[in-house]
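Protein 1 of 2
SEQ + STRUCT:
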Amino acid sequence: MSGPADSVVDVAVVGGGINGCGIARDAAGRGLSVALVEMGDLAGATSSASTKLVHGGLRYLEHYEFRLVREALIEREVLLRMAPHIIWPMRFVLPHHKGLRPAWLLRLGLFLYDHIGGRKLLPPTRVLDLRSDPAGAPLKDEYRRAFEYSDCWVDDARLVVLNAMDARRLGADIRTRTRCISARRQDGLWLVETENLRTGARATMKARALVNAAGPWVARFIAEGLGRNASARVRLVKGSHIVVPRLFDHERSYFFQNGDGRIFFAIPWQDDFTLIGTTDVDVGDDPAAARISEDEVTYLCAAASEYFRRPVRREDVVHTYSGVRPLYDDGTPEAKAATRDYVLDLDQPKGEAPVLHVFGGKITTYRRLAEAALAKLEPYLKPVRGDWTAGTCLPGGDFAVDGFEALVARLQALAPDREARTVRRLARSHGTAASAILGAAQGADFGAGLTAAECGYLVENEWALTADDILWRRTKLGLRVTPEGRAALEAWLAERTA
């Protein structure tokens, strides 16, 4: 790490997913010195492989996780105000199926969903007649009634990057492609050894506290990085998604019940596609090896075909992705019922430096998780500020929740020659910061509106180094840029980052 050999940071964070970056941002804003290391790209694993929802978790009510649901419902609107460019309201259509959960149970669940979270910005539940509502048009005739409720959509990977950017603005040292090899206690501090995976350079830093936010690798880091047994168990559960050409014309999403008791979503994705998922499958000990199986593809296609008039076939699938959720193992027999709540395990032998292990969690509650993490570490540190993140915006989010269209209009006026679709995409990705990209000379065009100006911004400001960083995590243009465009981008990056 940079700085004198004897310099000490207050908090060293291992892991650049949503929890690690959220904790780094919160800690830096409290006046603490922070260093974060991530062995790959920011949001390179679980945090870019979600269903892209900021939601209360309607199905968690069935498992009596009322505290988690209430906290998540409150957080929906907190996060919406923080980042209205990458988070926006979405309506979900839940068709009633006579053979599954009864209508009274759905009504009760949605009543609680509407009222226990202090909803102010989002509209309430209503009942739909699918025989006349446009939401019924793509569905089979047997579905005649549905409930429509509110949640939010989020660009998950960008939420991680924006937290990292704000952490850096507040003084945090963010190092990607940097692996934590080991950490050991010495003289009341942590000695943290790291390796830059691009250059092979090794370094050691000292820290007053260590946060293990390694996601699916949380238990492995305890075993290999710290050389000890985990005091809590982690359950690795794979969630897979498929992407198909757009199945319906409206902007609402569907919440479907499957015959096996699981639920799944069908969500408008990137204008021309529909995102379908997720699955819940227990996996082995290597999160990096997780890929969607043919059984999962078949499962999702068959489940969607139970609802849509037009069958979803294997040959319709144009993209897939899988993420591994590091859930706290609460002993439930089925993956779908395992808790999505977070568990923070503090290890602090008397007189020794503390380490905090982060198990579980979900994107919606990452900010509250960060607050809880800092509360546990506060006795060992000296923050100059208390909780602060709830009323602050993330980079580019300094506009009103209902001001997105006005922002797009201002940006289009700044670059009248740019395609409207590209301007809107940049506004969604960067908010008010998009003006820096649109106001620059655009340079090479890699296709789908992706230019050298934007890529340069991503390299300089957002830690992007590879084509996948840009096409799948920073811009979601992987389905639009041609192989030739990708090759040109890779050549440009090779020259730029040499």
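Protein 2 of 2
SEQ + STRUCT:
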Amino acid sequence: MRIAFFCPHSDPLAATGEPDAGGQCLYEAQVAAQLAAQGHELRAFTRHWGDKPPQEAIAAGADVFRIAMGPEGFLRKEDLGPHLPAFVAEVLQEHGPWLADADVFHGHYWDGGAAALMASLALGKPLVFTSHSLGALKRDRLPDETPDGSQFRYDLRVRAESRILAAADTVIALSGNEREALTGRYGCAPGKIAIVPGGVDVESFSPCADKRALQRQLGYDTDFMLFSAGRLDPRKGFLELLEAVDVVAQRLSQTGQTVTFCLPTGPARPNPEERAYRDALRKRAGELGIERHIHWFQRLDDEALKAHYRAADLFLCPSHYEPFGLVLVEAFASGTPVVATCHGGPVDIVSPGVDGFLANPLDPEEFGGRIAEFLLAPEAQRQTMGKAAHGKAHKRYAWTSVAQAIAGTYEALLPA
């Protein structure tokens, strides 16, 4: 098959720490590479900004094409809407013959869905849509407090999502929770929804035999090392996590044990929003008197990231809402249990008490209590949970299986 990805804001080859880089970008890159390995040809169309090349290979048979759109420099995904028609027009002009012979157009996130919808209408191609996150659910957890709604532009986003979902031939949901939202909140026809979870490179992410030795090698000398990762965004819940740090530190002090929380401070050159959030984190940690329990880190390269996943006693995902939770699957593949938000996709990933726990990140007593419950459990129980997490990653979330399932949804749309 010949497959076109439309992903204006989410460059599949975005580097960790870049604005708007994250799990969605990795998802697109991994699925594209696996589809190409299965013999398909794929082009991913994203916005060109910065000094990246206009074309770059994801893998043999899969390439990213970066298309100029709007002003120079980074542009927030919330502000892409007015520029999408010009983006699609440029894609059609530059890649028209290739797209005319394509089998399916796949839009990612609402901006990619809108672009894919415009292109599919122009060329009459089947449309597949993966939301990765739904505006109506995010608005529930994180209201827009600006008078004109310009922070998140939820009204535009939800209207666009509704139109894309109505037009799509197939909608890929990452979880059962997302499927319920698609049908209940957006009225999406259940029959065209396929649940295909995100995945993990089970060869690249792997456990280590001795977490304590790896922690010492990385420079951590407390009884426990906990890890969390993600871009500096209020929705990721790092500010609320600081309240839970205080809860955990106090409970461990009663047993004479110590803990280090490894938390991100964003890229070396943060944008104004990232800088403001980083400053708020530092200020709140100082107010709580918990700085001694925190190791702040800037962007980790791929090897350091994997080492931290392996070394951590526990991975933490305190997002207000997480549509899937790719970081959880990466932690599982590394043999590391999790404490994750109970809002969104993690509900489908985590088996409480087996490979991790679910908790409300907005309730520090509950979230911190779950962390402390794990750390204070017998070592044998913690190791058993780590093995269960690793086994689940291999069984359910290998990228090869994910891509095969997605290819199956494409093939179902082809003429008999």
